[in-house]
Design brief:
Belongs to the HAD-like hydrolase superfamily. CbbY/CbbZ/Gph/YieH family. InterPro entries: B-phosphoglucomutase_hydrolase, Beta-PGM-like, HAD-like_sf, HAD-SF_hydro_IA, HAD_sf, PGP-like_dom2. Its EC number is 5.4.2.6. It holds the Pfam family Hydrolase. By secondary structure, the protein is an alpha/beta fold. The chain has 2 domains: about 140 residues, HAD superfamily/HAD-like (Rossmann fold); about 90 residues, DNA polymerase, domain 1. The chain is built from 10 helices and 6 strands. A 6-stranded parallel sheet has the order 3-2-1-4-5-6, sandwiched between helices. β2, α6 and β3 form a beta-alpha-beta unit. α2 packs across α3 and α3 crosses α4. The radius of gyration is 18 Å and the shape is elongated. Bound molecules: 6-O-phosphono-beta-D-glucopyranose (BG6). The site of 6-O-phosphono-beta-D-glucopyranose has 18 residues, from α1 and α3.
């Protein structure tokens, strides 16, 4: 193991964004809850069954936006027409609901701003100082704006996010394709790359892609689930891995 807490032969680090680099996983979760609860109340009346944290972790966290809508609704036996990406936020389609959530997410970000995890920024600096390559691998179409807002865009050699994945036709997490694309673009074989993820879907992607090391970042007390989904090690902050100057 190196002083970064990684196997000696790791050459690249692939980081998820929301919940790993920035404190935005909770912002996404809150925007989803607002959106789904309003939808379910409209549909089922006041006796509706609310969207829970467990629903978020299991069906939505880490997935591309439209996949999150489909997967959660399917868990409740609900299917909506697909619609299209340009659907207005009040249309009852997969994309309409996704757009409704995005409006709520952006409103929250406008009001509260974006905060990074300082431990991750320090770890990233240490990774780069030791000559390892870095990528951001996020399902979010808002990834670039979020990184820019904390001045962290230049910390990554490669970005595979929701926009790039759509352009290239890559399936999102839990499939490994976005992480594999990042490793490929960095010129590193998957067994020589480490994945850093807070979402269960991200763990599944790390395992499916046969990456050299998968670090689960536990921000919400789900260490056991992260291990069950394939983490090699679980930390609550990347500073625990090492990388001190
Ligand atoms: O809606 P966006 O910004 O494209 O993000 C898609 C997904 O991105 C992931 O990073 C989040 O964990 C999910 O909650 C979110 O739904």
């Amino acid at each position: 193991m190196t002083d970064l807490g990684l196997p000696d032969d790791i050459l690249a680090c692939l980081f998820d964004l929301d919940g790993v680099v920035t404190r935005t996983a909770v912002v996404h979760a809150a925007a989803w809850k607002e959106t789904f609860d309003a939808f379910l109340r409209e549909r089922d009346g006041d006796a509706f069954r609310p969207f829970t944290d467990a629903d978020y972790d299991e069906y939505v966290d880490g997935l591309p936006r439209a996949d999150g809508v489909r997967t959660f609704l399917a868990s409740r036996g609900i299917a909506l027409p697909e619609g299209g990406p340009g659907d207005p936020a009040d249309v009852r389609t997969v994309h309409g609901l996704g757009n409704r959530k995005n409006e709520r997410l952006l409103a929250r970000i406008r009001t509260d701003g974006v905060a990074p995890y300082e431990g991750t920024l320090r770890y990233l600096a240490a990774v780069r100082a030791r000559g390892l390559r870095t990528a951001i691998v996020s399902s979010s179409a808002n990834c670039r704006d979020v990184l820019r807002s904390i001045g962290a865009e230049d910390l990554f050699d490669v970005r595979i996010d929701g926009v790039v994945a759509a352009e290239r036709g890559l399936p999102g997490k839990p499939r490994p394709d976005t992480f594999l694309a990042a490793a490929h673009d960095l010129g590193v074989e998957p067994p020589r790359a480490a994945v850093f993820e807070d979402a269960l879907a991200g763990m599944d992607a790390g395992r499916a892609g046969h990456f050299g090391y998968v670090v689960g970042v536990d921000r919400v007390g789900q260490a056991d689930a992260l291990y069950a989904h394939g983490a090699d090690r679980v930390v609550t902050d990347l500073a625990e891995l090492g990388g001190d100057a």
